[in-house]
Design a protein that fits this description.
about 400 residues, alpha/beta, seven-stranded mixed β-sheet, four-stranded mixed β-sheet, binds pyridoxal-5'-phosphate
């Protein structure tokens, strides 16, 4: 049974059939508190009524037409998205379907920007060690983690990794003779929730500006409100040249977006880039429903407040098994003394023993990662943390 899928995932032994808010229900009727939000995707939780309605209404009207034509859902969504990022200088957007595709688009923009202005040879894209940028061959090439590279070479040429936090190393890596772009997660997600320091982000933005290298923020996990600001770059006072978004942007419907500011907004010309599904009305309608909520300043403040509440609670535990806690908004990493995998499993077996279960993520072998939906209540935070304390104690 179940042997029809390629063996790409270590799935936990549970099948979910329903969700409401921060709760998921499995095929046995057991309940689980969801601190994963589908890996930062279901940012408004499960079954959020305005999102459900937007998707249902749009599906009934029009699901897809192709980019041969205009569509008003995509236009409304794109206008709202650009408005949400206008203070960070964003002017234009290309819509795709996933994070990897968004980063592919960003790399193409950096390469063409540089090629048009400086000619061939200035095509390097610098990324960080420990970064995660996707699973296509080029975004794997951009990903600074050996464990993803095994067996898949040869990779796309022109990527170079530099250690996070090391400004001198970055200065050397950003060789203006050969470098087109710098791609950075303001908060590294998959490798363990590592926020960049303000000094590093500022230095990187300055070096890129001085050398006419595009500063590209991969906000696929940390964007769309996750850190308490619509873009995590806002927390650093950085105006990037390019931003990529995906995961939470349509609340669970596949989507990706590449945004560009003044330097790069006009780089792509007709025929340079495209996507069959990109900007389809269904994803756009879902995205608009998400933006209507997550761009509100008081809603974003609540995300920051809830994140701080989680971090403060974790710090008050004084558990010997917890080595380090890092967070920005509702993106929390907890390094533990021991393997993360058994903690994830224990959160599920609890439910199967008749109590409420807890769903959490790992990020690397010894780091727990919490990415709860933004709509989580203080009571649900306390309940989830109480479960987590017992799982790690
Ligand atoms: C998830 C993620 C990606 C890849 O997104 P997919 O939709 O899985 O292709 C890229 N960058 C970051 C920072 C991510 O968290």
């Amino acid at each position: 049974m179940g042997d029809v899928f390629m063996h790409t995932y270590h799935r936990l032994p549970v099948t979910f059939t329903q969700g409401q808010g921060v709760w998921l229900v499995d095929d046995q009727g057991k309940r689980y508190l969801d601190f994963t939000a589908g890996i930062a995707v279901n940012c408004l939780g499960h079954g959020y009524p305005p999102l459900v309605k937007a998707v249902a209404d749009q599906a009934a009207k029009l699901i897809h037409t192709s980019n041969y034509y205009h569509n008003s859902a995509a236009l409304a969504f794109a206008e709202k998205l650009i408005a949400a990022c206008a203070a960070q200088g964003m002017q234009k957007v290309f819509l795709a379907n996933s994070g990897a595709e968004a980063n592919e688009g960003a790399c193409k923009i950096a390469r063409k920007y540089s090629f048009k202005k400086y000619g061939a040879g200035r095509h390097r894209i610098v990324t960080l060690k420990g970064s995660f940028h996707g699973r296509t061959i080029t975004t794997l090439s951009a990903t600074g983690q050996e464990r993803f590279h095994k067996d898949f070479g040869p990779f796309t040429e022109g990527f170079r990794f530099t250690p996070p936090g090391d400004i001198d190393a970055l200065d050397r890596a950003l060789d203006p003779e050969v470098t087109a772009g710098f791609l950075v997660e303001p908060v590294q997600g998959e490798s363990g929730v590592f926020p960049q320091t303000a000094a590093y982000m500022e230095a990187a933005a300055r070096l890129c500006a001085e050398r006419d290298i595009l500063f590209m923020a991969d906000e696929i996990q940390c964007g769309v409100g996750r850190t308490g600001a619509f873009l995590a770059c806002e927390n650093y006072g950085i105006r990037p040249d390019v931003v990529t978004l995906a995961k939470g942007l349509a609340g669970g419907i596949p989507i990706g977006a590449v945004l560009a500011g003044e330097k790069a907004a006009e780089v792509f010309a007709a025929g340079d880039h495209g996507s069959t599904f990109g900007g389809n009305p269904l994803a756009a309608a879902a995205g608009l429903a998400v933006l209507e909520v997550v761009t509100k300043p008081d809603f974003l403040q609540e995300i920051a407040r809830k994140g701080a509440r989680i971090e403060a609670a974790l710090r008050s535990w004084n558990q010997s098994k917890i080595r380090e806690i890092r967070s920005q908004g509702l993106m929390v990493g907890i390094d533990i003394d021991g393997d993360a995998a058994p903690v994830l499993e224990a959160g599920i077996t609890r439910a199967q023993n008749g109590e409420a279960g807890l769903l959490i993520l790992s990020a690397g072998p010894r780091t727990l990662r919490l990415l709860p939906p933004y709509v989580i209540s203080d009571g649900e935070i306390d309940q989830g943390l109480d479960l987590l304390r017992r799982l790690t104690g």
